[in-house]
Amino acid sequence: MEDQNCTATVIMNALSTLTPPQLSDLIHSVSSLHHLHRRRLSSLLSSPNLFSLTLHHLHSLSLHRKSLLIARHLLLTLTHLIRFMQTKTAPPSYAVTTLKLRDLDAVLLLLLLCELRQHHPTALETPHGKWRVALCEYVSDSMLTLSGIGVSNSEVLIKYIEVVTKCRRFVNVMGCDGGGGKEGREIATSAAVVVALPSVEVSGSGKECVICKEEMREGRDVCELPCEHLFHWLCILLWLRKRNTCPCCRHRLPTDDVIGEIQRLWEVLIKIGGGDPSKFSA
């Protein structure tokens, strides 16, 4: 419960920085995402063949792969939110192609199965062929919600926060560190980000590269990180091959590691809300 409260607090603190029109824009964007997921769930539950194929796909995945699948789903959701929070304008529409439909269906079904098990622990202690019926009975009282009809803006936002909370808890409990996202472990910076780093000319003398401790000569080209700290190109390239933090201020750069990116974006969200990342561990 403490982790759930922490997650909700972080998101609500970030949302509190928005003006009413901005919050309305975000709700509209989140609503589109919500309705997409509801429609996919409706299709799953109404089609025995699609349900069977999706369930078979889930059973073929190892526990680690299931964790990564939900982590990717969480990463896409956080990316969508952070883009909005940083620009305060409507983010790009959530594209179905960001996750293959088969994977999206698998994530939604897995989350629904976990929800059913939480509320009715014995509901899934039946042959797999009866699971669809059990799920249909579980959601029968909220079919209008599943079809996206009659859902208020506040309910959409609450559901959004619940999904983020559920995904974070699932990933944390299952220990999905992906071979790099584990706290305290070094993660390489994304290659695409490294290639895009700008080259700037050193102005003035006496500036030192904190990696090699040697002077950066005036007029020479050096690398500038997003935090505006400067380094010799060779020094910082070797550094970023192993780490995604600035040697000076520990500013985090994007990484190709799923869990590493979730942690980075989570810290960004905390800072937007005016919090201290050290007090809101993932």
TrEMBL record:
One of its GO terms (molecular function) is ubiquitin protein ligase activity. The keyword Iron does not apply. It catalyses: S-ubiquitinyl-[E2 ubiquitin-conjugating enzyme]-L-cysteine + [acceptor protein]-L-lysine = [E2 ubiquitin-conjugating enzyme]-L-cysteine + N(6)-ubiquitinyl-[acceptor protein]-L-lysine. The keyword Metal-binding applies. CDD domains: RING-H2_PA-TM-RING. Signal peptide: none annotated. InterPro entries: Znf_RING (IPR001841), Znf_RING/FYVE/PHD (IPR013083). This is RING-type E3 ubiquitin transferase. It comes from the Eukaryota.
